[in-house]
Amino acid sequence: MTDEAGLWNVANVLTMVRIVLVPVFVGFLLAGGTAGRLAALATFCVASLTDLIDGRLARSRGLVTDFGKIADPVADKALTGAALVCLSALGELPWWVTGVIMFREIGVTALRFWVIRRGVIAASRGGKLKTLLQVIAISLYVLPASLSPPAIVRELFMAAAVVVTVVTGVDYVVQAMRLRRSEPAQASEGSG
Prior knowledge:
It is a single chain. The protein is about 80% helix and about 0% strand. By secondary structure, it is mostly helical.
């Protein structure tokens, strides 16, 4: 590992920024009003953008670290989870939606740790689509009422996010089971 790939590389710093932005986002969202909602939306979008950037930087510049492998999914779940829980607590999103998404997110993270010695469950295209749909749906719910699209638009995006979340969750369970049944040497060859 080079010095550049140490703990304080740019990818890991972006992950930490995302974690720090979670309580800022929650504060703005709970403050309410148009200004609070717009500030919450801006914070959520910046935090979501750090997720896109940190992964690309880590892979393209060889900055992948053990810390990043753990902190990045934790930061993602913290941001998404905080948004969903707050929206449900405010009565704007049904609790079952939050429950289904969080169950899947925590479950997939646990699966990744369960199989980590045998290989890596990389994010699939479906997983990336899931993240995009969740970010769009949450953003639509965070918008102030005066700027929000009709409820049906928000609900359709959230429904799509829930469906893709569940389907990709099942796919990750299948991948994890395959990795657990494989020989450690075989799994490590194909990880990445």
